[in-house]
Amino acid sequence: MAAGSSKAAEFHGPSINEFFPDPIFFAGTPIEMDRIVLIRLFAVAVLLVFAFVGTRALKLVPNRGQAFIEYAFDVVRRNTFDNLGEKDGKRFLPLLATIFFGVLFMNLTGLIPFMNIAGTSRIAMPLILAVVAYVAFIYAGLRKHPGTFLRNALFPPGVPWYLYIIVTPIELVSTFVLRPVTLTLRLLMNMVVGHLLLVLFFSATWFFFFDADSLFKLFGIGTLAFGIAFSFFEILVALLQAYVFMLLTAVYIQLALADEH
């Protein structure tokens, strides 16, 4: 390619620095705001407007907008009740619905023109959500089994005492360390990789169409096609990651509430 185009060296692919833009407001302070922080605030504002407009005038026979909101919320409700039962499901439904829609709206900002990056593509937001899920898990276990939750989680009943030397460290790491870490990294890495691929496809398209020489411009058709196809795939990823985060949170809470504790 370098032999066929004198401008090939000018192509610059995506960089990890895109996730750390320059501050826009309050630079150098604890409340410093950059582009990604503003995108997160925008996503939250849109979500609040979406929830308010969609529920302010509910009708017995819903219109299309109300039907869409009810369907989306019903997905969360059914999964919550399936995992936690109706009684505990009602307690934790607001939390799980907030997690699902919050993650979804922040994920989708990566596909909105002039934003082009997910609010969950930097570790702070996935980590905060994972900590919320972790606290809910611990709270549910201690509330339901105040005297036995931690003991049974670290020292499962029925295991010979001498095996606790092996079992307890494994349970400590898998239950109380890996769960919030995997929740954080799963969401973060999917959003980071998705952004980098989209930037790669569309920046390559721009380069081939406007900077490459002669027949090399035809490569832009391929990169554009891949970029469009992957944009639709990213919508699926955004939905799936929001669903998985919500579902795993529900599963962890269910495990904490289980009678075995």
TrEMBL record:
Gene3D superfamilies: ATP synthase, F0 complex, subunit A. Belongs to the ATPase A chain family. The chain crosses the membrane at residues 37-58, 92-111, 123-141, 161-178, 187-209. It is a multi-pass membrane protein. CDD domains: ATP-synt_Fo_a_6. The keyword Phosphoprotein does not apply. This is ATP synthase subunit a. Its main location: membrane. It is found in: Cell membrane; Membrane. Key component of the proton channel; it plays a direct role in the translocation of protons across the membrane. Keywords: ATP synthesis, Cell membrane, CF(0), Hydrogen ion transport, Ion transport, Membrane, Transmembrane, Transmembrane helix, Transport. InterPro entries: ATP_synth_F0_asu, ATP_synth_F0_asu_bact/mt, F0_ATP_A_sf. SUPFAM superfamilies: F1F0 ATP synthase subunit A.
